[in-house]
Design a protein that fits this description.
The protein is α/β, with parallel strands linked by helices. It has a single domain, classed as Rossmann fold (3-Layer(aba) Sandwich), CATH 3.40.50.1360. It has helices at 15-32, 47-58, 86-93, 115-128, 165-171, 190-194, 209-217, and strands spanning 8-12, 37-40, 68-71, 73-75, 105-106, 134-137, 159-162, 184-187, 198-203, 235-240, 253-254. The strands form 2 sheets. An 8-stranded parallel beta sheet has the order 5-3-2-6-9-10-1-11, covered by helices on one side. The protein has a 3-stranded antiparallel beta sheet with strand order 4-8-7, covered by helices on one side. Helix 1 (15-32) packs across helix 2. The chain is globular, with a radius of gyration of 17 Å. It binds 2-phosphoglycolic acid. 2-phosphoglycolic acid (PGA) binds at residues 43-45, 138-140.
């Protein structure tokens, strides 16, 4: 089955222009709804977006004072203060630079003793805060979103994930050795992501080109988790030229 393609696809000239475009979308979300609930992502792809958002904040154009955030995922087993934790990443790249209230920041607790309770609790908190208005996503080379790895079924809600070898290998670039990469993570599920009112997916670099092409053209299958986004009503995809290389240029809006 192939879903109806209702995504807005933007091809930016390069990584910087992709990041600026993404930051503008997030900034306008915050401007229009100052108490927005943002879903946030980590990894190499969104660092430029956060940098640009911080710049917009420093110019006094937006405030995070009433913004609430939920991160997609966290490595299981890492303390917040571990430099490889996603908590640490978010603090370094965004939270320490803006006026967000830390009580409005939610990231799964990678050290939770009762993981099932942590996952249930995370879902409840998202609901209590009114659901996610805008979810930022990257995409793994294997087509994962959050840490929803290729599988025989879509995992609906926040859950403990066993990371794919491909993901462990890809993420080892952030660690001093591959042995240090955690083997598990807590991740929002596919339903959690799909319930977001709007989704903004970013991809940069030629190593993502094939995955991006498949995300948009492949049948919808848990073996390619990002393919589910074909069924979401409000997805914007921002690519740099390298990530868009396999798409037919004329079909997509050019910046
Ligand atoms: P990356 O990760 O931005 O570091 O490429 C993306 C992802 O794995 O979702």
């Amino acid at each position: 089955m192939k879903g109806s393609l209702i995504m807005q696809i933007i091809v930016a000239d390069n990584y910087d222009s992709m990041s600026k475009r993404a930051a503008n979308i997030i900034a306008s979300q915050i401007t229009l709804k100052p108490d927005s609930v943002l879903g946030l992502a980590t990894g190499a792809t969104p660092t430029g977006t956060y940098q640009e958002l911080v710049r917009i904040y420093q110019e006094g154009r937006i405030s995070f004072n009433d913004v609430v955030t939920f991160n997609l995922d966290e490595y299981y087993g890492l303390e917040r203060v571990n430099e490889q934790s996603y908590w640490y990443y978010m603090y370094q790249h965004l939270f320490q630079h803006v006026d967000i209230k830390m009580e409005n920041v939610y990231i799964p607790n990678g050290r939770a003793a009762d993981v099932e309770a942590e996952c249930r609790d995370y879902e409840e908190k998202i609901s209590t805060r009114g659901g996610i208005d805008l979810q930022l996503l990257g995409i793994g080379r294997n087509g994962h979103i959050g840490f929803n790895e290729p599988d025989i079924q879509f995992e609906a809600l926040t859950h403990l994930v066993k990371l794919d070898n491909e993901t462990i290998e890809a993420n080892s670039r952030f660690f001093s050795s591959i042995d240090e990469v955690p083997r598990e993570a807590i991740s929002m599920g596919i339903k959690t992501i799909m319930k977001s009112k709007k989704i903004l997916l970013l991809a940069s670099g030629e190593e993502k080109a094939k995955t991006v092409y498949r995300m948009l053209n492949h049948k919808i299958t848990p073996e390619l988790p990002a393919s589910i986004l074909q069924l979401h009503q409000a997805v914007t995809v921002i690519l740099d030229k390298a990530a868009a290389a396999l798409l037919v240029a004329a079909t997509y809006k050019k910046l």
